[in-house]
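Checklist before submission:
- one chain only
- standard amino acids only
- sequence pasted in full

Submission:
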Amino acid sequence: MTIMDKVMRVLFFAAFIVDVALGLICVFFAQEVQIILNVGREEEPAFIRILGLFPIFVGYLYYLIFCDQRKYLVLIQVTVLERLSYPILLSAEIFYLLPGPFSLIHLVFSAMALITLFLALMQVYYLIQLNQKVILSG
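Returned file contents:
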């Protein structure tokens, strides 16, 4: 196992923990999340709960990748697409959905967009390395 394999393994495990934690927070504390983000009506947090299911599912995919990176190569490709969709969604939320002037939540969402874009680029780099190993060995 190379150093890059070990680094990616740690990143996949961290992504698993963060995504599942974020999803569980959104599912079980939807009303509080809605109040903090100041979106929608307080009596209807169902939208936040539904959004929370997506990171739980993706966290499970990251767990599978963490267990065996080479066996679940296709899942790495799928999660790259998922990671690339986050900055788009976060940018839409920053500019269109969050009310009021620029605030701390805008800064947090901007940082999250940059981090997820970085993770997607790391995964693409890792996929390129894995493909080169397959071509050279094969």
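Reviewer check: The chain is about 85% helix and 0% strand.
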